[in-house]
Every structure is written in structure tokens, then in C-alpha cells.
Amino acid sequence: MREVAPLLLDWYDRHARTLPWRMPPGGGAADPYRVWLSEIMLQQTTVAAVKGYFERFTTLWPTVQALAAAEDAQVMAEWAGLGYYARARNLLACARTVAAAGGFPTTRAGLQALPGVGPYTSAAIAAIAYGLPETVVDGNVERVVSRVFAVETPLPKAKPELVALAEQLTPKQRAGDFAQAMMDLGATICTPRKPACGICPLSDLCAARRAGIAAELPRKAPKPPKPQRTGVAWVAMNDHAILLERRAPKGLLGGTLAFPSTGWDGSDLDAPLAAEWQQLDPVQHIFTHFALNLQVHVAHVSGNPERGFWMPRAEFTPGDLPGLMRKVWTRVQAAG
User: Fold this and answer.
1) Are the C-beta atoms of 302 and 237 separated by less than 8 Å?
2) Which residues belong to the active site?
3) Homologous superfamily of domain range 228-335
């Protein structure tokens, strides 16, 4: 499979996607800050969703030192909507570690020692920012490799085999461009459904295409059903303010701005204050490990809460809330 790298790099030189965090093919070393930031944002998220967030972050904090000096609450507010909020907490911890050290480590091992940086992200930064011959394997790369080699072992069991095969393909030169070429191929041609094999630069080398099973790979083991949880969100308001709280730094939706809620995250079931609560239709939300049915209770109140704080209505921005809490606010607004 020595032919894969030159064929794919030639295709990438002509068809590379233009992305705000990416250097053009052969354009030299990328900024490790921009590579790191984009890779953290792209975890469990699409390129289309990340572009706007990345551009806002790099406008507000153009360097890792600037991000390290940012207030936690501001970063969490800018992150709202991207989900998986532990990433935002690790983002700040990592930025402060890097700033204190005077810059990013220049080896994969050093990068992987940073908060929130795992094997994939360390390999991506090492290859794309430093040109090191590291193998970068995300979902797109897994799909390409599984088809090129016709690997029929289902995921996630196939992961070690796919990494080993991807290592065979990674060239010593232009490893960063090769990694991004594999990602682009998976995102634009070797797609999950209806792969465009007719225009793929690797079609003549693809064992799955020859066997007529490209669209069936990678195979995936069936997922068990998600556990169900229930809880209550309490939306208290008066004429001038809305009751909110800052969630604990760790745990579900850690560090985010939210309406007081109970039950679903292991907290007690008490309301934040006594009131005539009106029950609205619940909202549904899917987390990584469970599905949530969250009842929504709303009340207009005048007393002081046992938890949370009053935010003036003029300062309340629903976009600063995580996705679950935006659903709650939408339900309240729809009820009038």
C-alpha cells in the first residue's frame, strides 16, 4: 500500500477543504494553538458547527496566553451550544498549563500529558503543527482504512487493527497533510452512506470497492439502549429578573449557567424556593450515556431563593445556556 500516500497527497493538493484553522497544502507549519483549539472543538462535533465558534474564540483570544487569561465564565458562555462541557473546562486548564510553560510541547508524549489531550489530539497536533510522522485516526480515517483494507471486524473491536493499518499508510514526509487528506477524503468522498467510489483517488487500491461492500463498512456492533433518567427544571421569574445558577465545576454541564434543576444529576428533588409552580410539558435530551426526560416547572415569584441568583432580564442571554437549558427556556417561552 505504498501507493496510497502519493495518490492521496496529490488529490489533497488539488481538493483540500479550506478551513479557518488549516494551512493550505504544502503551506508550512500550522500554529499549534489553532490546531489544538480546533481539534478540541471538533471532538463529538461537526466541522460546520465548529467554524463559527472557532472564529469567535480566535477573535476574542488570538493566542493561548490570551485564552489562559480569560475568565472562566466568559469562556463557558462562548462555548455554550458546543456541548460536552468538560472539554471547555479542560480547554482552560490546558491553556493555562501551556501558557505557564511558555508554549506547547513539541513531542507527542509531551502533548498527551496536557489536560484534555488524548492519543488522537496529541497525534493531530504533532503531525499537523510539527510535521512529525504520527498517525492520526478519527472516525473519517477509520472509515477510509476499513474500506481500503476491507476490514470486516465491527467497531469498536476493530480500532486497534485500524490504527495499525493506518500506521502502515502514514508517510514520513508531509504527515500533517496526509492526516488532513485522510480526513477530507472521509468527509467528502468516502462518506458513511453512498461513498463516491467513482471519483475516489484510492478506488483502484480499495479492497472493499472490489468486493462490492464499501458502503457496508465499517461494520459496527449494536449499541445497547441508553438508560433513562428523569428530573425537574425550575424556572423562577419576577418582573425584573430570572433565577439562574452556575453549576458545579465538575460533573454534567459543569461550570455552565443553568436553571436550577433536580433529580436527573443525582441532586435532591427540592424546589429552589416555595412558589405556585406550573408544570409544563417535559423536554427530552440525549447525553452520551443516558436519555433525559426533564419536567419543566415555572413560577412568577417574589421571595429569595435557597440556591442560585437573580439575573436581570436585560442581561439574560439564552445563547449563554447549554443546549438542555435552551430547550427548557424555549418550552417556557412557548407556554407564554
Assistant:
1) no
2) 39
3) Nucleoside Triphosphate Pyrophosphohydrolase (3.90.79.10)
